[in-house]
Amino acid sequence: MKRTLIITSLTLIAIVTVAGAGLWGLLNTDTGRRIIIAQAETAIAGAVGGTAKIGALKGALPGEIILQTIVLSDESGPWATIDALNIELRPFKLLRGQVDIQNLDITSAHLLRKPPARERPETEAPLTFSLKLPNNLPDITIAKFSLVNFQSDLGNEPLRLDGAGNLDIGGRDIAANIKITSKNNLDTIDAAIDLQRNTGQAFLDINVAAAEGGIIATLAAADGPIDLSLKGGGPINAAQFSIDTAIGAYGELTASLSGDLEKIVTADLAGQFTPGRALGDIEELAQPVAFDLRIDERGKGGVITINRLTSAIGHMTGTAEWKGASGALKNLSLDLRTVFAENYRPNLRGYLGEDAAIAANIERKRGAFAVDGSFTSNTLTFEIRKGKTDLRKQFTGEVSAEIGAMEQFSFLNAKAKLTGVVTADLNDKIDVQKLSVMLDDGSSLGGAGFFVFNTQEVAFAGDLLATPTLISSFLAPINLTANTHSEIDITGTLDQFTLTAAIKTPAAEVNNAPAPPLLIDIALAGLPSRPTGEVIARAPGGEGQFKAVLRSSEDGRISVPELDYRSETFTLTGSGAYRPEAQALDIALAYSGQANAEPWPGLPLVGDFKARGALAMSGEETRFILTSQRLVSESFGMSGLLLTAEGAPDAVSLGATVKRLTTPPTGMVQDFSVNAKLDIRDALGVTLTQISGLVANTTFSLRAPSKIQLKDGVSVDNFRLNWGSAGRIALDGAFSPTRWRADIRLSDVNVPGADGVASATIYLDTDEPIPARGALEMRSLLVDNLTDAIKTGFVWNGKAVIVQSAADEDHLDMRISYPALLTKAPALSINTEGALDGYIRYDGPIGPVAAYLPPALQTLEGDLAANFKLSGSPADPALSGQAKVTDGAYTELRTGLSIIGVHTEATASYGAAGSQVRFSGGARGADQSGDDTITLDGELALTDEPRLDLRINFDNAELSAHPVSRLRASGEVNIAGPLDALAANGSIQIAELSAEIVTPENTGLVPIEVVSHAGEETHFITTSKAMTQAPIDLDFKIDADDRIFIRGRGLESEWSASITAATEKQAALILGRMKLRRGWLDFSGRRFNLTRGEITFDRLSPNNPLLNIRAEYQTSDGVTAIIAVSGRADEPKITLTANPPSSSNDIMALILFGKPADQLSALESLQAAQALASLGGIGPFGGAGFAGSLRRSTGLDLLNFDLDPDKGGGSLTVGKYVADGLFVTATQDAQGDNGSVRVQYEITDNITVETEVKQDGNQTVSANWKRDF
Description:
Blueprint: H1 2-20, H2 30-48, E1 51-58, E2 64-74, E3 77-89, E4 98-111, E5 137-152, E6 159-171, E7 173-182, E8 187-196, E9 201-210, H3 215-219, E10 226-235, E11 239-247, E12 251-259, E13 266-275, E14 289-298, E15 301-310, E16 314-325, E17 328-340, H4 346-352, E18 355-365, E19 368-377, E20 380-389, E21 394-403, E22 416-425, E23 429-439, E24 444-452, E25 457-466, H5 468-474, E26 478-480, E27 484-493, E28 496-505, E29 508-510, E30 513-515, E31 518-527, E32 532-538, E33 544-552, E34 558-567, E35 570-579, E36 584-593, E37 605-616, E38 622-633, E39 637-647, E40 652-663, E41 667-679, E42 685-695, E43 698-702, E44 706-709, E45 714-723, E46 727-735, E47 740-750, E48 756-765, E49 772-780, E50 789-796, E51 800-805, E52 812-819, E53 821-823, E54 829-831, E55 837-845, H6 847-850, E56 861-872, E57 877-892, E58 897-911, E59 914-925, E60 934-942, E61 947-961, E62 964-978, E63 983-996, H7 1024-1027, E64 1033-1048, E65 1051-1064, E66 1067-1083, E67 1086-1097, E68 1106-1114, E69 1120-1128, E70 1133-1139, H8 1144-1153, H9 1162-1176, H10 1185-1194, ...
Helix pairs in contact: 1-2, 8-9
């Protein structure tokens, strides 16, 4: 419609041009008509773009003009046609500059497609702006207008518009009426405009209704119907109008306008825009936009005052003031302030703060505009100074920014400043010179660069200085000792650029471990998608080096043909490649780390591994193998690792075996193996087919295949595990952001490190009103009464977890409420902020509780009475109450240490420093009666860093613990400090000590031969953290003037001692000396007098004392035999000498039989050889002697000769395992008088049954129980 009126106007202009040239008579000639057509076609084409073609010009010119067959085209062909355009006018008024059309008919116009976009020619004309209505409107009158059969092909079906109206414009007045309707009522336009400035009245009534699919809605691309209503009027200097419109999917606008339309001195505009669905993705339009504006004229300009502009962004106020000259914009000033909405873009608000302000001044100078402005928020200030722009495509000027501290950027803990000179041409490039970025910590970046829009070419060259503070803010574990310097150069295009950099880093501390300075050179081309080049890093002092060579190909393959990373203690070499066609990663790596190897500072890795194969996501099978003989780090230790993966991406067979695996949570796991099927394309679906191993003397194995799915969380189906001989574990569950579900069942599961078993049921479903509930029963194996079990249950109601004892629990009464508020949106989470509440009461034997104490305390006996109350919060728990142990006794099974009369009292209270537990108690030795000879008192602070302060006093306490049969001592021991850094000190005076050296039975049982596989040693099967864990800080003084008796194996001796126990270099160290006072040694029926004895503990070989012991025996022939023990205790040197000197064989013969070796009988020679071998592990049969050699040759498990040289007799014992756990022995003496047969059967690892039948017919049966610690 608009373009049809343009065609009409331009046609009239062409006629006026010809008439003004005095060619009136020419109009009715063919030549004249062709001139008019050409003028009209040129004018129409210039106005609407493309080309215009008029088929014919008819009518009685100049009063009647008929244009026929008008075709409008562009490069794609015709886009509109008009069959006929009829104009009846008064031609003589054209000479007076008036257009007076009596009748205008447009017949059969046809819109074939959307009009093409018309390029706007660039112009150097100044921008113009005026609020006043013009006083010299063109004088145009259209008495009658009609539109007949206007058709459109834009909708889903052909559309037709018909309409009529009139128009009268001239000078200062406007009057118009128009009504257009469609045949199917999809489009309706009804407009009446009457602006009579001479009479001072204004009237406006415009209504547009366009259904979806109609011509108007289609041309507007409204994606829905359009309804527009603009009404109002009144005195022209106080007119009021209302606007109510809905534009399809874009939203609705309701507003009111009032003011003086004559001079526009003041005008008020207020309303609300409600965005539609087409704008739903724009967060700034997430809610209605309400506005209240005022327009005021000021001199040759004006000002718009924003009283209120409220949107999803927040609340905006401010002014926009302009000044003009000769209708052109001369100056524009902006002063705007916004307070951001609380929920508007939290991340952006985190950067900018709560509010922001914009101040700008734009002034026209010498054909361009000078710009100065600023953007200011709580944390950011951005300024433009000396700017120059055409307000279209070009800008140049100085820019600066100052950024305050931001929590989002840890490195911006102080201010940062940026300055530079920017030259931008949107048709060419952006160029930045004199770029400078400065941080308050001293870090800086300087340089220059540019970016070309059309070619995407980019370049930057600069220097970067990074302080230790900046580096540690990005990489927290790294603490540099000085600044890092870098030279950076980037050239190329955004999709393929080259980076060269030279970086110099100082010495550093990484993960609390030292790291050397580095020189790093980077030379990479083809970035970011096809890197080719090298990355080299080396330590100037030779501590290590790193080199990686990268290559890329046109098919997208990226390879690392060479990777070499090494130091004095480790090497990591290999290669790799990524093949995009198969989404496959090829790997070939080999690592070897010696003692103290740290491939990354603070990350120890001792051992070796090799990895080789391909991991493919599609197109081919995965084939991968990882092996390691031993590998130890801070959090794990393992030996004998073999891991394989093979198969198609949707069915990868994974297998792993580890001979020994140690982690802090699990301890040592032996013979661990796992087999699984993986679907790496289906969100890592895993089917476990086999799991087995041994942990804490407990075997475990998978009973059935189990499926684990890592999709939308984690789901576990049918996980069934055998645990120990009778234990069972079952787990089914799924955990996603919106729902947690689990069913867990434990049956007779022995607790590692405890003599007890546990059974439990746990049901969890966060969609249920009660999200979780369950029960737990813990039963000790150290007590015979099966009813002495700890039984509890729990319920989680979505607000708190409530744990309480079972109704049939005999000794325990407990109820604890732990805050656990379930939150379901935006994802499931648990808030544990809240109050703790509850109590724990126990009255009964301590045995069921002791079973779950550390192993050394599990044999504690007695009665326990406890009553504690829990309060406070999980972050600051408060414990109060008391507990008592009475009639207690304790036996340490390994050494036999036993104390009786154990009684303790503990009282807990809560104060400003947290919960405090104060305790006291006493006991006495197993053979003592009466008052306590051992007392203790102290306190335990349950704070963020728990601390113990314990004092133990010995008052003539008598104790025994293998190999010490009797100890009587007095003194004091103090243990204090944080639980992870305890210190123990004290002084102990030993009044008497008797130690027995146990004589092992000469059974001849099979010795256990320890074989090292491929250099594997037990100390590797732990974690490096455990190996370096600091012990208790010791500082003890132990004195004994005498009465230290050491007896056994023929030894009877008395010693004195002065010993100090301390901690040095994170290890316990014993220093001091023991001296012999008197003693003797009985060897093979002969008594040797101890003439010298000294045991010295020093720092040269920690805890490995130096021995200096000498024993002498005077034979009947006057020969003095001497046994000397010297050297360190772990490798003592035992020598047998004589005075006068003799061979060792003669000396032993003289000691045993009083004659030299060449005079001995065969039986005496054998006994002498055995004695000599037992003394020093020497002789023709080695340390095992003749019996051991014969046993090995006969295949027996037991062979023993007992010889009696005085009586000339002896006995023989043989034995063998005849079945698993069944051992049979037979004994017979040389005279044949005494013989026996013994059968021993192992029922379990701890229980055996023995029966013995003797030659005289007597029979015995016994049962034995044992436990190893």
